[in-house]
Amino acid sequence: MAETTENMLAISAHAQLLAGEETPQIIRPSSTRPDNLKKGGVVSDPRLGVELPGLKLKNPVMPASGTCWYGQEIARDYDLNRLGAIVLKTTTLRPREGNGQPRLLKSGEEWMNCNGLHNVGVEQLLADKLPWLEENYPELPVIASVAGNSIEEYEEIAGKLNASKHLNALELNISCPNVKAGGQAMGVDPEVVEELTRRCVQASDKPVYVKLTPNVTDITTIALAAERGGAAGLTMINTLTGLRFDLASRKPILSNVTGGVSGPALKPICLRLIHQVRQVCDIPIIGVGGITSAEDVLEYLIAGAQAVQVGSASFTDPLALPKIISALPVLMDQYGIDNLKNVKGE
Ligand SMILES: Cc1cc2nc3c(=O)[nH]c(=O)nc-3n(C[C@H](O)[C@H](O)[C@H](O)COP(=O)(O)O)c2cc1C
Prior knowledge:
Low-confidence stretches: 1-11, 24-40
Catalytic activity: (S)-dihydroorotate + A = orotate + AH2
Function: Catalyzes the conversion of dihydroorotate to orotate.
Protein name: Dihydroorotate dehydrogenase
Cofactor: FMN
Mean pLDDT: 89
Bound molecules: flavin mononucleotide
GO biological process, one term: 'de novo' pyrimidine nucleobase biosynthetic process
């Protein structure tokens, strides 16, 4: 217990901030200080530009929902204008406290969380979080992530979010493994996914992306259901359900017993799932799972994604995203790629 828990507390001060946990002060080693990245304008290589429904991205890299909270937290580390877009923490109708502690754990190279959709709720998102982004980053494309306990709740939130002009797209989180109602339960049934997607598409002025769970037998049936429901695109994938035990107490370490595994172990699983879905679905895919480098981004594009999200990598290195974005042009030169739009599998 001691080792795991101490590890968790020591490593996760920064991670907790990005995951929306309370943390008094973040002290970074000087090697990760972002001074060099904060100064100067953002020079963007036009070869990195990608267009998706509702999203004109200067590059295909964005932080994943739940790993950058509402943007203020990562804005301490680097200029958000470097990003292709930002995906906000999943929003529910009312604020949620989430699950009890501990709910974030470093497990080898991977992370586990049972955050339980801790968030400020849609009203505060509209009143406070989105206006802050609009004021400070008017050019940055913003994706709001939505979850509800029922189809009606998803629909209601999607409708309320129409009030924001500074929102480019919605991402339906039908895949959260750490809540008892809604979330993943909805994402495993094709009929529910189709209906849920259709109702949100009707309720919203924004393009609707559907975020899939890997915790299913055949992900293609769910992807096709979202496409039939009118999804503008898919986000693949949310975390994979896992479990860790404490040796001394012989009890599960996380408060919710199980948690969602994120980080490098997800990458080959996600690449396989994207490859499978790409064979049957035509809508764009935003890939997410274990990305830590520009090489990973390229591999996701080859598998069939058009853009990517990076989550847990920022917990370990606050500058993971700007570093990945800066490394992309160098990698493109190395592989003779003239434009990222042209990267596809053989
Ligand atoms: C602490 C934490 C909180 C998360 N919260 C959300 C969330 O609110 N909504 C969501 O759709 N995904 C959430 N995720 C899942 C991530 O968006 C992403 O799908 C997953 O972590 C895999 O990417 P990664 O391996 O790059 O971290 C969360 C992940 C972590 C680690």
